């Protein structure tokens, strides 16, 4: 009798545990927010791509910014070099002669006023070209930043888009209503 009571009690407790464990709980999937992805990407480039689980894009974002940053720095160095050389040749002070470093292999005879003037104009053109290139790269960096934000936003909008192979097209005969006549035709229904 004692064994029967003990085994019945164990059986009841086992059923209670099983009953509690077998309840199906539907997990709510958090909604993927395009607004959140856009803000993340605006605050820190690449963070929106991480939020969208597109990890492979993050190195591309930072390689792009690194490359553009390098060209901003290089063009700014060129601009500074040519600006100082142009200022030195324009002031006619013999103590300021940084422009002579840019007269490669004595190509320009700087003692000749005509050639000195041509060299001065060439330095000014080089200075303006370097400034223009630097400014264009800065604008390109701003455009790349905007592209990063747009990419994160579009990716977030398409995050739950079904790209499975379950694209179906069904052809079936059916009636076609044309004016007052009833004709037989083919209907096509595409589901994607």
Automatic annotation (TrEMBL):
InterPro entries: DUF5683. Residues 31-192 form the DUF5683 domain. This is DUF5683 domain-containing protein.
